[in-house]
Write a structure and sequence with these properties.
The protein is mainly alpha-helical. The chain has helices spanning 2-14, 19-39, 44-48, 63-67, 74-77, 80-96, 100-117, 124-136, 149-181, 185-188, 192-197, 205-211, 215-235, 242-260, 263-272, 280-287.
Length: 288
């Protein structure tokens, strides 16, 4: 037992275990953020400007949060283009230039500033994204390239633990989601998806008309969602069935995208699966 623990500690302090996971996760998150910002450009002034529809958040004494809350100040909100442009430029720099950690810090700052301005309309997916984006600052796909032995050990250890911390966020999300579902009768009796379809905010008209009268699919989808979220935190750690569990997760989140219309949440969750597994064909591309 002691030898196994010692070997594991030696591994996580001397080996960059998740280089391809980090590399692909960084690219995927940055591309998503870039596309999301470009899609919102026509609404950017309304979202982030001095006359935004969003009321200022409640004042607090947390200086860190105030630092990310700069767009609540009218004089800063008038310069919203600086924040949007800064996010776009820092994403491009992070994608194509060296010094990934520095550019990731800049991406995080600008993303958090825009996020706090529009927090009333954000969902759990974007909440998760900004947490993982912060942890991405500490991830380094080239951690073992540091020459100084002490700094190399520190860098590798921090990078490996940051990946585990990000994985833990995914696990917590599923545990909390499934835990509260167990207290609702509609999830247990298989009718929850029926009420989702009846909510115009979280359903697409075509899908609604197709499934609303099909009790078999309503029960099947409801129970699939509940069982998947209950089992994911346990089964994802078994190597042999991990690809299958992640495949089911992709189907689950594609359903959220195309049935419920919550596109950003579904895409973000699929991207997060890169923390757990990288298919061989993507591994080859990352190494080339």
């Amino acid at each position: 037992m002691y030898k196994a623990i010692n070997n594991y500690i030696d591994t996580i302090t001397t080996t960059t275990l998740y280089a391809n996971n980090i590399r692909l996760l960084r690219r995927a998150l940055l591309i998503f953020l870039l596309c999301n910002t470009l899609l919102l450009l026509s609404y950017a002034k309304t979202l982030y400007g001095a006359h935004s529809y969003f009321l200022p958040l409640e004042k607090h004494s947390n200086s860190v949060l105030n630092f990310f809350n700069l767009l609540e100040k009218p004089n800063m909100a008038a310069n919203w283009k600086f924040f949007v442009g800064g996010q776009i430029l820092s994403i491009i720099a992070c994608l194509f230039l060296p010094y990934k950690r520095l550019s990731t810090i800049l991406v995080y700052f600008f993303t958090m500033s825009l996020y706090y301005k529009t927090i009333p309309i954000q969902n759990g997916g974007f909440n998760l994204l900004v947490i993982v984006l912060f942890l991405l600052i500490f991830m380094d796909e080239n951690a073992d390239a540091v020459k100084h032995p002490v700094l190399k050990t520190i860098n590798i250890t921090i990078s490996n633990f940051a990946v585990w911390a990000a994985r833990f966020q995914i696990i917590i999300l599923y545990i909390v989601a499934s835990y509260f579902k167990l207290f609702g009768q509609t999830w247990l009796n298989g009718t929850a998806f029926y009420y989702v379809l009846y909510n115009d905010t979280y359903s697409l008209p075509f899908i609604k008309n197709l499934l609303i009268s099909n009790s078999f699919f309503i029960h099947a989808i409801t129970w699939f969602a509940l069982i998947f979220q209950l089992l994911f935190p346990v089964l994802v750690w078994f190597k042999k069935i991990k690809p299958f569990i992640l495949f089911l997760g992709i189907l689950f989140h594609l359903m959220i995208i195309f049935v419920m219309g919550i596109t950003d949440f579904g895409i973000i969750m699929i991207i997060m699966y890169l923390l757990f597994y990288v298919p061989k064909f993507l591994n080859q591309k990352a190494n080339s």
